[in-house]
Amino acid sequence: MMTWKERSLAAFPAGSNGEFNLPEELTIVIGRGEGCRLWDVEGREYLDFSMGWGSGLVGHANPAVVEAVTRQAPLGSNFSYVHENTLLLGEELLRLSPACERIRFSASGTEATLYCRRLARGFSGRSKIMKFEGAYHGAAEIGVVSLFPKDPPPFPQPDSTGTGASQAALNDVLVAPFNDLETAVSLIERYADDLAGVIVEPLQRCTPPAPDFLEGLRELTRAHGVLLIFDEVVTGFRLAYGGAQEYYGVVPDLVAYGKALGGGYPIGAYGGRADVMDLVRESRMNAAPYVWSASTLGGNPISTAAASAALSVFREEGVYPRLHTLGRYLREGLERVMQDQGVEGRAIGDGPLAQAAFGAEPAVNYRSTLQWNSSLARRVMLGLFERGVFINPMGTKLYLSIAHDEPVCDEFLNRFSDALKAARE
Ligand SMILES: Cc1ncc(COP(=O)(O)O)c(C=O)c1O
Q1: Which structural domain, as residue segments, surrounds residue 383?
Q2: Is 397 part of the annotated catalytic residue set?
Q3: Is the pTM higher than 0.90?
Q4: Rg (CA), the chain
Q5: Helix, strand, or coil (residue 390)
Q6: In what order do the strands lie in the sheet with 345-348?
Q7: Which amino acid residue places its CA nearest to atom 8 of ligand 1?
Q8: Are residues 292 and 236 in the same domain?
Q9: Domain end (from 314, 337, 353)
Q10: Are 61 and 403 in contact (CB under 8 A)?
Q11: pLDDT per residue as tens digits for the range 39-79
Q12: Among this protein's residues, is 136 annotated catalytic?
């Protein structure tokens, strides 16, 4: 009889549903999760520091989310039209997001960023989108362009590795270095006539924006009639209830949400200026500019019920100070372990996000991350996995949730210390 592991390896390329890259011997099949822990089908317990790539900010099987979903499940799961739950959640997003005058739902973050880019093109009549090297905006072509170039081409040339993109699609992407306003200024000025939008992760992966970087992008894009798109799929509801817009005090034209919004259920949302969002009105269908927007499962009553429940948890008193305190605690702990072992490096991130960066180079943009010791990082991540910490060994981020606390972080840090020691032997 085949084991669970063998069956998974036979069914899925690399035994995973995407972007995990575990060696075969570490392949597992998950049975269940609760709070900040999960168990594989053979009963082995893991501390979860991935939390569904951040979708589980509210914690696995959060009682408020479970109750909301259980209440909705017998009443129908999808109507592809506005349900009461869809409306309630949409109204809450309009309240919390400084940028959103109108909103629509999709089923994932990939879709949400894709609509933002198409809206920017439809609105401006221009074709190019600028992104920052090393940023991820979902699995569509532009999201993956220049995500992990080994030998990065000169700016603004895109690197197509892994994109499966046509040359025509690549021709419409300009790539710039994050946190380098000067280069962004010169590219935006040079390409303004063709540039529809600039898409940015306000906290790029775990690298914070330099002072005035986002403000500078805001002014520059506005001056040239280019739409500024915040990809808040990670930062939304995580850095603050109002996301990076609230946290950094910069309001984009369009914004994409996903992950934590759904409380672990599939969701995406995109919104922004009414004059841009209204391009999707079907009454415009035969008169440009019109932008087609449709998502069969977008805004379904189960996901929106889960999301409203998650948001009500996030609105509870003290949630964000607590998430920030815990994030700092974890980052300080990571740095302490590195110092104790004489390993050069730092912990980066913000809010409930952390990453151990092994190397002297400060985190500025993708090219500075190339200076870090990635083979040590990989050995440490696999060592953590072997020691019962569930993380994505390819990903760089550690995701905390409201279900994590200091003792769980201490346990993680003990295992991190052991894994780091072993990785250097
Ligand atoms: C910043 C960012 N944007 C978009 C996405 C895509 O979201 P999804 O995987 O829900 O399609 C991700 C996913 O990791 C992300 O990190």
Answers
A1: 4-62+318-424
A2: no
A3: yes
A4: 21
A5: strand
A6: 345-348, 353-358, 398-399
A7: 109
A8: yes
A9: 314
A10: no
A11: 999 999 999 999 999 999 999 999 999 999 999 999 999 99
A12: yes
